[in-house]
Design goal:
The structure is a homodimer of 146-residue chains. With 146 residues, chain A is mainly α. Chain A is built from seven helices and two strands. The longest helix of chain A has 17 residues.
Chain lengths: 146, 146
Amino acid sequence: MLLSKSTEYGIRATLYLTSLKQEGYVSIRDISDELDISFHFLTKIFQKLTQADLLQSFRGPRGGVALARPADQITLLDLVTAIDGPALFTECVLGLPGCGERKPCPLHEAWGPERDNLKALFENATLASMAADLETFDLRLKILHL
Amino acid sequence: MLLSKSTEYGIRATLYLTSLKQEGYVSIRDISDELDISFHFLTKIFQKLTQADLLQSFRGPRGGVALARPADQITLLDLVTAIDGPALFTECVLGLPGCGERKPCPLHEAWGPERDNLKALFENATLASMAADLETFDLRLKILHL
DNA sequence: TATATTTAAGACAATTAAGTCTTTAATTAA
DNA sequence: TTAATTAAAGACTTAATTGTCTTAAATATA
């Protein structure tokens, strides 16, 4: 699996938050209800994003979470690295510690450009651009209940 | 993480087996000792590869494992899908069941070509080509003990 | 000030992945 | 035929991830 469940949830939830375009804070409960994600689990994921300064949170009535900066200044790469860490973009595909130019693994050369592509893709996708796509193409963030 | 530990081990071990260019069977113990992979764990991984007809195994003295077909006819994609399954190349990046052309997630369009690249990379890398690189460039499969 | 609302934090449980150990079956060779 | 060698199979343990629950802290409002 490319992304952990935590990261999958984090992306969907943050994207949903963005799409609401709400002035103030949005409660985590509203988001978890809407996207069918465990409230407590989502709370923990948001805590990571808050600690990484991607979100702001506020306690008490009318509290919740909000983007910490404009939606065009938060990328998918920000979200992924804040939750899963940078391993996907830094570590050897074969898990060999110390794999590098000096003594590379058999996939090193081929994986380098591929990893850069992936990173570029994640870097170019901002919450703003994705939220725009969301509107334009009526994309989905929810699981369908049949 | 892109690949599971099982797949990482499976690739390294199969590649090592290929590089030996041995006529008969190579014992799993020899491979696990050489690459510092748990013997029993590697045995299970090889069992999957044997069941997927990528390896042949033989019990008893002078037994072990061997490639089931020429090294240029086994790809990295074969190994990855045999061990981890095809999810990486088939499932939605955001984990939305039913994500597809009809009702795609916000990453669907961007991820499609990227996934195809990745798949092509894994499909073009055969055990033969990687083993050749291994010789030519003195690449490494082992963890370095300092 | 008291109560309700909301996130923070941490304990705990369930599930999955990773790793170990033991027994069985197949095969060779003495 | 007996003993040694090797993979197969499955039980078991450990660790990591995922998910749940409870309590504490912060804040607003009545």
